[in-house]
Design goal:
Elements lengths: L3 E8 L22 H5 L9 H16 L16 E6 L5 H14 L16 H10 L5 E4 L5 H14 L5 E8 L3 H7 L6 E8 L8 E9 L2 H11 L5 E3 L11 E3 L11 H15 L5 E7 L2 E10 L4
Parallel strand pairs: 2-3, 2-4, 7-8, 7-9
Antiparallel strand pairs: 1-5, 1-6, 4-5, 6-10, 9-10
Helix pairs in contact: 2-4, 5-8
């Protein structure tokens, strides 16, 4: 049974549609304003990553036809799950809580802020907001996190545990995340809906997936699994076949756990423009665990 990307949403400074990922970042673009995108209701006391994740969810679910014009779900909630990829999502909340405890003890913690210290807060808040009662988890395992989230979503729908999985890759930009990463963070991300039935809504089919101990072997595995690709989405030019097109998404800042989901969103936009050859998303390093997957045009199997 094939898994397809049926909905895509993007929220980055200056970018509100997947096509924007195919162009360079907009210099000086304003930060994403969640309240302007989805309204203020339900955003109070939510951390930045969760607010951005809710925006991405609305966009992707709407694109997939899973939310109607009033924002109500159109599919049974028990058949829709959530996978969030974020390595830095609530790091600011956790650091603030640790500092408060060190200075004032646990009595100094705010009861409104404490729930945001949960590592699964973004995924759980998305599920509550849209009544998504399928499998729910957060993936935060470093550089491959975004593609791993897409892989888990595809596995979940292929196994029949859900009809649709909402995948959100999001990272916030703040003092804590900048200190951890040594520079600006994307402050946004991408959302995808991965579905069992492709139909006419399919932006792309999720093809072969490869995991190896290094980037070069991962690229070789992808090329062997689906020859003749059209574009490689990776920040490392070394494993890309000679003459192949490459798209690097580093211009928006450190994407961390959001990067793999952003790559899939960009690949979907690229396939919409030139959908005759596969697109390859690739994450990892020379001697570290690496992951890659192939996205195929929606009309192919």
């Amino acid at each position: 049974m094939s898994a397809a990307i049926t909905g895509v949403g993007v929220a980055l400074p200056g970018v509100t549609a997947p096509e924007g990922l195919l162009a360079p970042p907009v210099p000086g673009a304003a930060r994403v304003d969640p309240a302007a995108l989805i309204g203020k209701k339900g955003l109070r006391y939510k951390d930045r990553a969760t607010q951005l994740g809710l925006c991405l969810s609305v966009s992707a679910l709407t694109d997939a036809g899973l939310l109607d014009a009033t924002g109500r779900p159109t599919a049974p909630g028990e058949r829709v799950g959530v996978v969030v990829s974020t390595n830095l999502g609530n790091a600011d909340t956790v650091c603030r809580a640790v500092e408060t405890i060190a200075k004032e003890g646990t009595r100094g913690l705010s009861p409104m802020d404490t729930p945001n210290a949960s590592s699964n807060i973004t995924a759980s808040e998305i599920a509550i907001r849209f009544d998504l009662r399928g499998p729910n988890l957060t993936v935060c395992n470093g550089v491959t996190s975004g593609l791993d989230a897409v892989r888990w979503a595809a596995l979940t729908v292929r196994s029949g545990r859900a009809d649709h999985m909402l995948v959100v890759g999001v990272e916030p930009d703040n003092e804590v995340t900048r200190a951890l990463m040594g520079g600006p963070v994307v402050d946004g991300g991408a959302g995808l809906v991965v579905s069992r039935a492709a139909g006419s809504r399919a932006h792309a089919l999720i093809g072969p997936q490869v995991r190896t101990a290094g980037l070069a072997a991962c690229a070789e595995g992808l090329a062997a699994a689906a020859p003749g690709g059209g574009v490689w989405l990776t920040d490392d030019p070394a494993p890309v076949p000679p003459g192949a097109a490459r798209l690097d998404l580093r211009g928006w800042g450190e994407a961390s756990g959001a990067l793999g989901v952003l790559q899939c969103a960009a690949a979907s936009a690229w396939l919409a423009q030139d959908g005759t050859e596969p697109a390859y998303a690739l994450l990892g390093g020379a001697d570290v665990p690496s992951a890659g997957l192939v996205l195929l045009p929606g009309g192919h199997s």
